[in-house]
Amino acid sequence: MSKTPTTARLEARISADLHALLKRAAELQGRTMTDFVVAAVQDAARCVIDQTDVIRMALADQECFAQALLTPPAPTQALERAYARRRKLLRSE
């Protein structure tokens, strides 16, 4: 029976300047460099995914809105009653 790993390894070649920058930032937060980098990458990934989801949802919502404008649904009985009450209230003023 093979075990699936619970972690994966990620390697990247970076410049010495970037390494020093990351090391300093990690030290300022009291983290290991690995912890700092993993947290930063995770935040960046979530941000990209969230932005993409918002854009996709916005496009889907736009299509739904446009479709509702082009082919509005028939009014329900509750809407017709509400509209009748509104007309009655406006006439009594």
TrEMBL record:
Protein name: Uncharacterized protein (DUF1778 family)
NCBIfam families cross-referenced by the UniProt entry: YlcI_YnfO_N
Keywords: Toxin-antitoxin system
Protein source organism: Extensimonas vulgaris
Alphabetized Pfam families for the sequence: TacA1
SUPFAM superfamilies documented for this protein: Ribbon-helix-helix
Source organism, top-level taxon: Bacteria
Assigned protein family: Belongs to the TacA antitoxin family.
GO biological process terms, semicolon-separated: regulation of DNA-templated transcription
Keyword DNA-binding appears in the UniProt entry: no
